[in-house]
């Protein structure tokens, strides 16, 4: 039984997971296998995504709130947020990290891998740390 604010996850085939939530609340997705994870949320609330496998992680959020993304596997991480709030992204694997934010708020990005790209058009704080080549 699902409580208020929690959404069931559906698998769209081998290596692919898709989840959508239109209501307020928390969305939590974890994937340990290689493949692609896609998550979209239009409502206010908290979005948390963790992936331990190699592959691609894409996350989009249009609502106000907090977005946290962690990835330990090699691959590509892309994150876009148009709403006000806090964006935190950490990646320990080699690969490319791209982050764009148009809303007011704080952007924090840490990467131990190779490539880091960050763009922000809104007022607020931008902090970037990189321990790897790039």
Give structural attributes.
single chain; 134 residues; mainly beta; seven-stranded mixed beta sheet; six-stranded parallel beta sheet
Structural topology:
Blueprint: E1 10-11, E2 16-21, E3 25-31, E4 35-41, E5 45-51, E6 55-61, E7 65-71, E8 75-81, E9 85-91, E10 95-101, E11 105-111, E12 115-120, E13 124-130
Task: Describe the model.
Residues 1-21 are annotated as: Disordered. This protein has one domain. A hairpin with a 4-residue loop joins strand 1 and strand 2 (16-21). It is mainly β and 134 residues long. Mean pLDDT is 64; it is low at 1-16. It has strands spanning 10-11, 16-21, 25-31, 35-41, 45-51, 55-61, 65-71, 75-81, 85-91, 95-101, 105-111, 115-120, 124-130. It has a seven-stranded mixed sheet with strand order 1-2-4-6-8-10-12, with no helix packed on it.
């Amino acid at each position: 039984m699902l409580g208020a604010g929690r959404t069931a996850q559906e698998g769209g085939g081998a290596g692919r997971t898709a989840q959508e939530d239109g209501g307020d609340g928390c969305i939590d997705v974890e994937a340990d296998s290689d493949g692609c994870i896609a998550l979209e949320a239009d409502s206010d609330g908290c979005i948390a995504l963790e992936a331990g496998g190699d592959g691609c992680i894409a996350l989009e959020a249009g609502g106000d709130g907090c977005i946290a993304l962690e990835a330990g596997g090699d691959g590509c991480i892309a994150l876009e947020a148009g709403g006000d709030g806090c964006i935190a992204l950490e990646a320990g694997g080699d690969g490319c990290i791209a982050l764009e934010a148009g809303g007011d708020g704080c952007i924090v990005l840490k990467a131990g891998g190779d490539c880091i790209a960050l763009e922000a058009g809104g007022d607020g704080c931008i902090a970037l740390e990189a321990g790897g080549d790039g």
